[in-house]
Amino acid sequence: MKKQPNRREFLKGAGAVAAASTLPLTSVELAFADPSKNFTFAYISDAHIQHIAGDRFVRNWDRGLIRAVAETNLLQPKPDFVMFGGDLAQLGTRPELDHGAEMLAKLNYETHMVMGEHDYYLDLGEYWRELFGPHWYSFDHKGVHFVVLNSILTYHEWTFDRWPTPEQRMLEMAGLDNPNGSPFMVGDKQRAWLATDLSGVSKDTPVVVFSHSPIQKLYKGWNFWTEDAEQVQALLQPFSDATVIYGHVHQIQYNQIGNISFQAVMATAWPWPYPGTYAQAEHTMPKLTVPMNRADPFFERDATGWQFIDLSNGRVSMSYNLYDNTNRTVAYDPATGTPVDTRYQNVGDRIPPQTQY
Amino acid sequence: MRKTLFALIFVAGLLGAIAVFGGDTADDPTLGLPPVPIPEDNPQTPAKIALGEELFNDMRFSSTGEVSCATCHDPEKAFTDSPLKTSEGIEKKTGTRNAPTVVNAAYFHTQFWDGRSPSLEDQALHPPVNPVEMGLPSHEPILEIVRADPGYASAFAEVFGVEGERITMDHVTKAIAAFERTQIAGDSPFDRWFFAGETNALNEQQQRGYDLFVNQGRCVSCHIIEQTQALFTDNRFHNIGVGINNIQSDVPDLADDFLEADLKLSEVDVEVLADKRTSELGRFAISHGFDDLGSFKTPTLRNVAATAPYMHDGSVATLRDAVVHYNNGGVTNEGDPVNDFLSGGIRPLNLEEDQIDDLVAFMEALTSPGFTVPTAAPDEG
Amino acid sequence: MAKKHIWVFLVVIATLAIVGVSLRADEFTEADLERWQNEYMSVVKEGRALWGSPDLGTNGVACGQCHPNAANTHPETYPKFQQQLGRVIALRDMINWCIMNPLEGEVLELNDPRMIALEAYIAYERRGVPLDPGKH
């Protein structure tokens, strides 16, 4: 009988955590000297609210966000805040952003927003600014320095000169496999701001960066890519506990580059294939990643989900709440110095749905 | 290997019995069904089955001496208590759930609407000690009877080689389960049409209904029909928006209170039948998983025309009402609010009225020979 | 008179040979191959256009939203037992399932030119992958 822990049982260490795991997930003794500094936050991402006409929106994506919000509200103990990871809208229109904001407003917690390309390229984030505030910023919470980047910018020429209308520009960026697209980047201005922002942070302060694009170069064809990834990474490498949490990919991914852990979040809308399933192109997906279970498209919420993140000892442990699938936890393992899946990391522990081809 | 052997022996015996007692010798009552799963520690024997049947029908296993398994699982009513919405135990006490049929229950991986029981053997332990079902304080009264009654004594000795104090509930439930494993029924008009190639076994409307069932109606994904067999259940749990729609705003508090109470499984059995609102939590009460909120096990649709009313709470009166509920996308009245935890498989179907009738006609073709469909509509009350 | 006809005949043959048209009924030429490949690719392009089109369904969702570059369509595994339909089906039956379900649209006739175009595009993006019929 599959048992899925809810938040409460997760804290007790019960439920889906493999008995063989020795990871100090929320083990208070090994965490901050001051246990009050352990905390959790929830992460909802990639809702892709899609307007059809009038007051009709694509029901499938609506239900995904509704469900994530309802379940997040059930978490006990309560998370300190909720992040929304970008792509609230599908084509960046006001009805979509409004409809999405309305659903997010039902969250019982303080919410911080990350920009996605589907939110940005219609009006370059003007309405987003009105609704949600700045496109990039930082904040501190219980001894952790959080940074939100707008990492889906691209070359100036593509953004301002290439397309005859904003609608066209948005459509071109909306197609994941569109050869007319353009690679994501953080850009010079933001990197300069980041350098200044981080200069005031001590190197042993845990740093968590929220980004829509991966801040890695995984697969350019689908923009699982950040053009200036190395330069952003260089700014983070000096920190002993640095984590990048990113959206956009609609699938479980995780990686370690030097001092920096990378963890992707699920979409609430729909899953994407892994780049390895596209037979005509090369990619550099992290070998570390144990893939999510394949989707059964009959169940519209399959291979979608939301997550909650435990920060203990300054390191991230991310629990993926999946529908009708065994929940997954990817947590930083000090023994290996990388994130690992607490149940499936060993090849011998994999299950058939994790075979992607 | 052994369990397959016994299953085959059983089926052969059944076929032989049919051949002896008349009826079409070409009929296979299991047409459309796979072999019955028989656990290794409880092989079928004729004596065990007979003992199980006796226990199943014994009303002494209740505090008032008036309720047996057969009270709610009546062989004359396809092993349900149709037309009752929720069952009536001792002193006509009611619970919260509709009695599922025993027919083909052997194919379920778990028993009860929320799957809280892992086997037929385990399931038989619960109703005797539930206050609204058979109301016994413990299993002791049952053991006293089977140990003292001379008829039972010789039966237990023959079947299990035990007597007196060595007879336990393990033996009692094994015998009951063995009897239940003989209640297998396929060979419906659908089976003869689909698996035996009898092109006229379904009329045109029923064939249109089949087409809707596997295409626009989206039924087949949970009510499984496969190439060589049809169980009509996926043995999984889904929130299809029955019952929970009425308590939507209470779900956070209910779920929280339930987890706080930290009940043992036997206490869960009592609680879900005692409190209607807790009952609506469904599988969540067992697994504590968010995605099981309001989820219930997919029942088989075999003989569904004989087992009205429908759903875990008996709140859906007719098959047509059931199809309308699905057509509305998981709400009873079109336009009602959809609950937040609805299964991703449930969505509006855009069926026309005649298509709904076609689906009902198809489901009526899932009745096995020998089962009667009640001609009067069940009470609306 | 006959001699003149023979000369005309020989000139025609030479011209045809230069242009690359085979005179033997069952021999196709490089030019034929190239032309036929282009004919095929023209339909692949139509399939690609349909792939991103919001008009196959009624809710604006396009195939490419879940299947970039037709990934995860697995044409090499068909016919297969398709769990969502409860029986063994061909690729086009699953295309219709997707049009009916996530795209909330009307199914296509099996010989609809759009169906052929979709299959052509799907197969093209999966070229080189060996057949593995029945694989789930």
Give a written overview of the molecule.
- The complex is a heterotrimer of chains A (357), B (381) and C (136).
- Chain A is of the alpha/beta class.
- Chain A has nine helices and 17 strands.
- Chain A has a single domain (41-354), classed as 4-Layer Sandwich (Purple Acid Phosphatase, chain A, domain 2).
- Helix content of chain A is 22%, strand content 22%.
- In chain A, the strands form four sheets. Chain A has a seven-stranded mixed beta sheet with strand order 5-4-1-14-15-16-17, covered by helices on one side. A six-stranded mixed beta sheet of chain A has the order 6-7-8-11-13-12, with no helix packed on it.
- In chain A, helix 8 (188-199) runs parallel beside helix 9.
- Chain A is globular.
- Residues 1-33 of chain A have low confidence and may be disordered.
- Chain B is built from 15 helices and two strands.
- Chain B has helices at residues 2-21, 46-56, 69-72, 120-123, 140-148, 150-160, 169-180, 189-194, 204-214, 251-261, 265-274, 276-279, 284-287, 319-327, 353-364; strands at residues 237-238, 296-297.
- Chain B has a two-stranded antiparallel sheet.
- Chain C is mainly alpha-helical.
- Chain C has a two-stranded antiparallel sheet with strand order 1-2.
- Chain C has helices at 2-19, 30-51, 63-66, 91-100, 113-125, and strands at 80-82, 87-89.
- Chains in contact: A-B, A-C, B-C.
- At the A-C interface, loops of A face helix 3 of C.
Would you kindly provide a brief summary of this structure?
The complex is a heterotrimer of chains A (357), B (381) and C (136). Chain A has helices at 7-12, 59-72, 94-104, 117-120, 126-132, 156-161, 166-174, 188-199, 229-236, and strands spanning 39-44, 51-53, 56-57, 82-84, 111-113, 137-141, 144-148, 207-211, 217-219, 224-225, 242-246, 254-257, 260-264, 305-312, 315-322, 328-333, 338-341.
